[in-house]
Design a protein that fits this description.
The chain is α/β, with parallel strands linked by helices and 131 residues long. The protein has 5 helices and 5 strands, in the order βαβαβαβαβα. Helix 2 packs parallel to helix 3. The longest helix is centred in the middle third of the chain and has 14 residues.
C-alpha cells in the first residue's frame, strides 16, 4: 500500500514518515498543489495512494482545497476506491474541521501533534491496519 504525507513542517513530516514507513510505501510533498500532482501521477502510474495524511494549513494550496480537488478528480474519473484522507491540524477550530469533513469528505482528522497510537487507531478504523 502507498501513503502520501502532505505537510509543510519538516519535523512533522519526519515524525509521520517514521510512523508509517513500516506499513506503507511513503511519499512526501510539502503543499496542497504538490499533493494534487502526486495524486494524479499515482493514478497515471496505476499505483494509487490508499492513505493521504494532509495538513489543513499550508502555503500555496491549503489542505481543504487540495482535498476538494482530489475528490473532484476521483468523481470525474470514476476512481475507485477513494483514497482514505486523514486531515491533520494544529488548529482547535471545529468549523475548519467540519468544513474538511462535509465539503471535502475527509475520512478522519487528528489534532497535532500526532501521536502514533492515535494515528494507528484511525488507520484501524479506516481498515488500513489489521492488528
Amino acid at each position: 500500500m502507498r501513503a502520501l504525507i502532505v505537510e509543510d513542517e519538516f519535523l512533522s513530516r519526519k515524525v509521520l514518515k517514521s510512523f508509517l514507513m513500516a506499513l506503507f510505501d511513503v511519499d512526501i510533498v510539502v503543499n496542497g498543489r504538490e499533493a494534487v500532482e502526486a495524486f494524479k501521477l499515482a493514478h497515471t502510474e496505476n499505483k494509487p495512494y490508499s492513505l493521504i495524511l494532509m495538513d489543513i494549513m499550508m502555503p500555496e494550496v491549503d489542505g481543504i482545497e487540495a482535498l476538494n480537488r482530489i475528490r473532484t478528480m476521483e468523481e470525474q474519473e470514476s476512481l475507485s476506491p477513494k483514497a482514505k484522507v486523514i486531515m491533520t491540524t494544529a488548529l482547535d477550530d471545529p468549523q475548519t474541521v467540519l468544513k474538511s469533513f462535509y465539503d471535502g469528505e475527509a475520512s478522519a482528522y487528528i489534532v497535532k501533534p500526532v501521536a502514533k497510537d492515535k494515528l494507528y487507531m484511525e488507520l484501524k478504523k479506516l481498515g488500513l491496519l489489521n492488528n
